[in-house]
Design goal:
The chain is of the alpha+beta class. It has 2 helices and 9 strands; from the N terminus they run ββββαβββββα.
Length: about 130
C-alpha cells in the first residue's frame, strides 16, 4: 500500500491553535484538521508545509519545528503525518482552500471532529498545555 507523506502545521498564537475544516468532496470532508498537505516530489517536508499553508490559508510561517510523526492506516491508504510547530510570520489566515478556520485552545480541540490519525496529536497538545499551566 502506498504511503502518503503529509506535513501539518500546529500554528499557534496566544495559546490557541489554528484548525481548518475540510471542504466537501475531499477525503474526510467535514472533519477538522491541522492545516497542511501532501509532499510533492523533490520537496522537503518544511517546504511542503510552507507551500500548503500559503495555498490553503494565504499565510507565511516561520521555520517549522518538528513536533511528532504519526503513521495511520486507512482502508484505502496509509498516511504518514509530520506535525510541525510554527507561527504566522506574514499574512492573516483566511480559508482559501478549506471550508472554515478557527483558533481554539488545546482543551477545546475535543469539541471538534478530527480524523482518527489526529487523536494522538490532540492528546499531546493537551498534555503540553496542562504541563505549561502547572
Amino acid at each position: 500500500m502506498k504511503v502518503i507523506e503529509v506535513a501539518a502545521g500546529l500554528i499557534h498564537h496566544e495559546g490557541r491553535y489554528l484548525i481548518a475544516r475540510r471542504k466537501p468532496g475531499v477525503h474526510l470532508a467535514g472533519f477538522w484538521e491541522f492545516p497542511g498537505g501532501k509532499r510533492e516530489p523533490g520537496e522537503s517536508l518544511a517546504e511542503c508545509l510552507q507551500r500548503e499553508l500559503f495555498e490553503e490559508l494565504s499565510i507565511q510561517v516561520d521555520i517549522p519545528v518538528p513536533y511528532q510523526i504519526i503513521r495511520h492506516d486507512y482502508p484505502e491508504k496509509t498516511v504518514e503525518l509530520h506535525f510541525f510547530r510554527c507561527a504566522i510570520e506574514q499574512g492573516q489566515a483566511a480559508p482559501v482552500d478549506c471550508e472554515e478556520i478557527r483558533w481554539v485552545l488545546p482543551e477545546e480541540l475535543t469539541q471538534f471532529r478530527f480524523p482518527p490519525a489526529d487523536q494522538d496529536i490532540i492528546d499531546a497538545l493537551q498534555r503540553d498545555a496542562k504541563r505549561a499551566s502547572e
